[in-house]
Design a protein that fits this description.
GO terms for molecular function: dolichyl-phosphate-mannose-protein mannosyltransferase activity. Pathway: Protein modification; protein glycosylation. Its main location: endoplasmic reticulum. It is built from 31 helices and no strands. The chain is mostly helical. The radius of gyration is 32 Å and the shape is elongated.
Length: 694
């Protein structure tokens, strides 16, 4: 199987580090960039939130943090800011206890440590959003975009816009919120590690619970549910928004809603919606007297009487936030008090900036929806999701906020920007090296079954870059399927010569060499693949097939057993073991293996079929019948299963049932080998019995 690796990942100018090393480097970069804040003092909002906040004092009842706002005021008070962040205040109180007073160094060290942890976790978040959810046989997540996710995490770790959140102690709220935001998303993703789109409701509740924890650190945490929903729709269910809209607008057959229902998507979205609604309702009730009141000094645009002016100025604020992400040259802890004058007329030149912002956003949206490159669509879409959704609570769209611009609210949104920036670097690297997008177009065409067109694009990708090993590997796979084995062998041999540790290419080369009867070379290629990827169940499976072709039964069984140990649900390996043991007369062992396999794969009709054949040969007719019938319940249109069940009934003496299943088998496949002869034999026997009775 060829995994959908982002073609541009390989061209990013970074070394390919292992998971541990990339995390250590990311944490180190985050530490180096912000460690100089460790000996800072309490500044700006720290005075109210920490120095003057009685809830930090051990003499104050701990229960007070659940009744008061972030600044220590009672939530029922009209003067309360309504910022309900008890878990953040609790960490401040712990800092106070551990330091024995208000000593800022401990507060700063914890902030820096949290930023390091969040930056490291961003590697996992970006790996999923760029390279999708892929797991090995043991359920361990594979990172198909190691360089891209590493680069995006480095951008996040070092971005200067995080200064207020990390260096300012009150930024702890943003850090804790981001941490539990990530955990909520990763738990939601964890639910799909088996590839099943239907999963226990427990996973959703766990994700919603972590969302609630994030909200208890800062209100922005609620937005993770929107990110989870977008991930489910766009990646898990692979819903193409552009194609869906095109079908609806052209009044063609709409998307298969039944498929979405059967996949569990609507149920999951409903639970996310209900969970989010409950959290918002609880948050509203906690505020007590309604939303906080702000003055015109805090947010002048929200007090503009003209709706058009409000909209224009809000969009100007958005453009300034975007500029801070793009070019964080002038950072400021407080943008109120007239720092950003209002736009009051159409002649104000600053109106250009909102227009430019929306042009850029529309361009990104167009590319995210309409590009033929699936990796590009996925990366840009999730970059926009991460950029926009966490920013919504600060956008003034739903309620008035108490600031003009606040760099701290960009802490989570910057992850989306870093993702888009990492893609831009990778994309530009491809073009600087004259690597076209032919590989990815070829991959998309191959995924859609258009192999002839895919071959054309893969050949062009190899022509433009003769060392493009992934294009060689994919082209070799298609040529192998088209039985053009000599050229496939040549391409795959070139790929492993250029990149000797390319395990997938070694395995595919082994498959081709096996088909060419070059058994010694095929065996060596398989072992090379295993040498470079120790846990490679598919390679062990193909190695077992080679040994079976060479009548090396013990070696074949050992190879398939290794495949099932690495990937317990490897159906083909289990089934081949049962068939080989059956063919070599080891019926008792075949029965044991078959039953062991069905404990892991209880609904695998192919293993049921093979086990039923084994039991029939042992004259365990009743048990064999049960497995045949269960297999037919799962897949009733398998001619061979009806045919073999008919043979069982024939031997068992249940001739009427045998006749029925012979006829069903022949109806499904009139050319089923042996079935017609057995059926004719049965008819003669029935006629003879009828004459005897007569």
């Amino acid at each position: 199987m060829v995994l959908s690796e982002p073609y541009w990942d390989h061209h990013i100018p970074l070394p390919k580090l292992g998971p541990l090393h990339s995390r250590l480097v990311t944490a180190f970069v985050a530490l180096i960039c912000f460690i100089n804040s460790y000996n800072g003092d309490f500044v700006f909002d720290d005075s109210e939130a920490i120095i003057n906040n009685k809830d930090l004092n051990p003499d104050t009842p701990l229960s007070n943090i659940w009744k008061n706002d972030f600044w220590g005021s009672n939530l029922s008070s009209n003067s309360s800011h309504k910022s309900y962040r008890p878990l953040t205040v609790l960490t401040f109180r712990i800092n106070y206890l551990l330091a024995g007073g208000l000593h800022p160094i401990g507060f700063h060290v914890l902030n820096v440590a949290l930023h390091c942890v969040i930056s490291v976790l961003m590697i996992d978040v970006f790996a999923i959003l760029i390279g999708s959810l892929v797991h090995d046989g043991r359920g361990v997540k594979l990172n198909l975009s190691p360089k891209a996710s590493f680069l995006a995490a480095l951008f996040f770790a070092a971005h200067p816009v995080h200064t207020e959140s990390v260096a300012g102690i009150v930024g702890r709220a943003d850090l804790l919120c981001a941490l539990f935001f990530q955990l909520s998303f990763l738990v939601y993703c964890k639910a799909f590690q088996g590839g099943d789109k239907k999963f226990p409701v427990l996973w959703i509740f766990s994700s919603i619970l972590l969302c609630a924890v994030a909200m208890l650190c800062k209100e922005q945490g609620i937005t993770v549910l929107g990110v989870n929903a977008a991930f489910d729709i766009l990646m898990v269910c692979n819903l193409d928004i552009y194609e869906l809209a095109h079908r609806l607008l052209s009044r063609r057959k709409s998307a298969d809603i039944g498929g979405l229902v059967s996949s569990g998507l609507l149920m999951r979205l409903a639970l996310l919606f209900l969970g989010g609604s409950f959290l918002l309702y609880a948050r509203w009730r906690i505020m007590g007297t309604g939303p906080p009141s702000f003055t015109e000094v805090d947010n002048p645009a929200s007090f503009a009487e003209n709706v058009i002016l409000r909209i224009v100025n809000y969009n100007y604020y958005y453009s300034l936030n975007a500029w801070l992400l793009l070019c964080p040259w002038w950072l400021c802890f407080d943008w109120s008090m007239g720092c950003v004058p209002l736009i009051k007329s159409a002649t104000d030149w600053r109106i250009v900036w909102p227009l430019l912002l929306w042009c850029c956003l529309m361009g990104l949206v167009y590319q995210a929806l309409c590009s033929q490159d699936s990796n590009k669509r996925r990366t840009l879409t999730f970059g926009l999701v991460l950029l926009v959704i966490p920013f919504l609570p600060a956008s003034n769209l739903f309620f008035r906020v108490g600031f003009v611009i606040a760099e701290r609210v960009l802490y989570l949104s910057s992850a989306g920007y870093c993702l888009i920036l990492a893609y831009t670097v990778g994309y530009c690297s491809c073009h600087w090296k004259k690597h076209k997008v032919h590989y990815n177009v070829g991959k998309n065409l191959a995924d859609r079954g258009n192999q002839s067109a895919a071959v054309k694009y893969y050949r062009e990708a190899v022509r433009l870059h003769p060392k493009y090993v992934h294009a060689m590997n994919n082209l070799g796979n298609i040529l192998k399927e088209r039985n053009e084995l000599e050229e496939a062998e040549e391409l795959l041999s070139s790929a492993v010569h250029i990149q000797p540790d390319f395990a997938a290419a070694w395995m595919n080369l082994g498959i081709v060499q096996n088909s060419l009867k070059k058994f010694d070379k095929a065996e060596q290629s398989y072992w090379n693949a295993i040498r470079f990827r120790k846990k490679y169940p598919d390679c062990y499976y193909n190695l077992g097939r080679l040994y079976a072709d060479l009548n090396r039964s013990i070696d074949a069984l050992n190879a398939w057993r290794n495949a099932t140990m690495l990937k317990p649900d490897h159906s083909l390996a289990w089934n081949n073991m049962v068939i080989l043991l059956d063919n070599t007369g080891n019926l008792a062992q075949a029965e044991l293996i078959g039953k062991e396999a069905l404990k892991i794969l209880p609904k695998d009709h192919t293993i049921m079929f093979s086990l039923a054949n084994v039991l029939g040969k042992q004259e365990k007719y009743k048990e064999s019948e049960g497995f045949f019938l269960n297999a037919l319940k799962i897949n009733p249109n398998v001619a061979s299963c009806h045919g073999n069940l008919a043979v069982l009934y024939h031997r068992w003496g249940k001739l009427d049932l045998a006749k029925r299943h012979y006829e069903l088998s022949l109806r499904l496949d009139p050319n089923a080998p042996g079935t017609k002869e057995n059926y004719n034999m049965l008819k003669r026997k029935l006629e003879q019995r009828q004459r005897t009775v007569g």
